[in-house]
Amino acid sequence: MDEEYDVIVLGTGLKECILSGLLSVDGLKVLHMDRNDYYGGESTSLNLNQLWKRFRGDDKPPESLGSSRDYNVDMIPKFMMANGALVRVLIHTDVTKYLNFKAVDGSFVYNKGKVHKVPANDVEALKSPLMGLFEKRRARKFFLYVQDFEENDPKTHEGMDLTKVTAKELISKYGLDDNTVDFIGHALALHRDDTYLEEPALAFVKRMKLYAESLARFQGGSPYIYPLYGLGELPQAFARLSAVYGGTYMLSKPECKVEFDGSGKVIGVTSEGETAKCKKVVCDPSYLPDKVTKVGKVARAICIMSHPIPNTNDSHSVQVILPQKQLGRKSDMYLFCCSYSHNVAPKGKYIAFVLTEAETDNPQVELKPGTDLLGPVDDIFFDTYDRYEPTNQSEADHCFISGSYDATTHFETTVQDVIAMYGNITGKVLDLTVDLSAASAAEE
Predict the structure, then answer these.
(1) What single string gives the DSSP state of each residue in 350-389?
(2) pLDDT tens digits, 9-40
(3) Which of 94, 147, 190, 215 could tie 223 with a disulfide, CB 3.0–4.6 Å?
(4) pTM for the complete prediction?
């Protein structure tokens, strides 16, 4: 360990593993350490015995739930947009060869107390019970505008500069009502609250286009894909990639103390009496607690069930978004469900999550709008975890700290953090212009 590295990465969470893979591919000498004896950090996947140990101590799971090793329960459950940034990173790094994906069955939204399929194009919009007849005509015009919009072709802009026009002003041009705006903004554009309405409309339109392009990729019922055997496969796949390019991995390394010189710049990491020297450190918030601040917390419910979520067309894997306004909250609530069809549970079993940015100290009461939609559950666990963001100046101390995972059940925010960190670490822009047809080979 007494060597010098370009970068030492601490923690094997998904963000850290993607970064160590990308940096290794770039030719940097990377040492990757974790105090745990398993991959994944906060974003690990647990079998049934591990899940029980974490939440119930010495209790044992009931035999009726099946074999422990048939379960892969993600602690940070998220689907990937089929055309999104994470898939582009996977193809860019060729990590797809270590993984198998399967399309997610359904994408739904909660509106006026009911769960509805998200209409993803003008044809579905015309059939959707979410809107009345006249509203459907207006929505169709808006969908067609978004579909035809090309940033570099002013003829498709209808005289509007979307870097100046706000999302609210664009929407008002089409006269859409609040309910329609709710599902478009939250279930298609995947905004987490309504602040986007006052911001330039360009990002909003691009996010809607990403949803439509992702949906078109596999002609499935949703724009999302998800790896077989759960997300625990992802950090390990990036770890393999890093190793192929000469990265060194060490699990079960206690303490991992980051060392600084007199000017406060990182010079290495000490574990078990040995110090590895480095120019830069990349880590999750738990490794440098004095350089982060708490910015919120996520409330979550983890449920094991013997049936799909009701009113989702019997979908074996599904996301349901409950927009904040529908619940009288400041932020959205998310339902995530996957099952034995993605090899994360024994046959006939489903794993569902309800997550939201916590606004109280009582997750059981706060998550009730989501858990009420699940039907009967075999077992349920409630907890909260704190979210941290870095407060340091990375150009001064050369420490690059990831933010904690938010409540969203898709990867778009996670990958934006990784891409920004990569730019800060290397001074380069990550080129994600890849041929996405190659990804289809990785999909089952």
Answers:
(1) EEEEEEEE-SSS-HHHHTHHHHTTS-S-SEEEEEEEEEEE
(2) 999 999 999 999 999 999 999 999 999 988 88
(3) 215
(4) 0.90
